[in-house]
Design goal:
- By secondary structure, this protein is an all-alpha fold.
- It has one domain.
- The protein contains nine helices and no strands.
- Helix 2 packs across helix 3 and helix 8 crosses helix 9.
- The radius of gyration is 15 Å and the shape is globular.
Amino acid sequence: MHTPQGSKSLLEYLRTVPDPRRRQGRRYPLAGLLAFLILAALHGKNSLHGMWRWAQVHQRPLLRPLDLWATGRLPTLTTLWNLLQRLDVRALERAVHAWMDDWGMEEAWHRERKSPWKIEDTELPALQTITAIAQQVEWVIRQRGIEGNTLTAALRVLTEPLPESQSER
């Protein structure tokens, strides 16, 4: 049985990613923004515009759990574009790998999938990484048997420490 080193949620790991914005430009917490993009990708959205539109429709259940409630609304598409252009993608990868590793899932992930971390030259390489993270979240939901609809289960993965799976008990 693997005993996790820490019991931190994915959102807590996302908080370790350095925010590229100036202090005065931080109306929304970076971890919450990354989390809602991951959720949108998990729901089949693979463009920034599609992710933003999905989040606009589903923002009510997202704002509070992702610490985005202070402004009462999500940022503009331009704000997200500018953020993702400057985001340290490698730091985002390290945060997610650390989360997977702390729960003993990193090795299993690499066996299940070919590495999703290959970043090609695109306008927004961060978007590819976010889509790959969404695939990992989906994999974790299935492997851990987390119940609920996709949004509820994914919010649990993002905001709560992972429960031990049935096979590890």
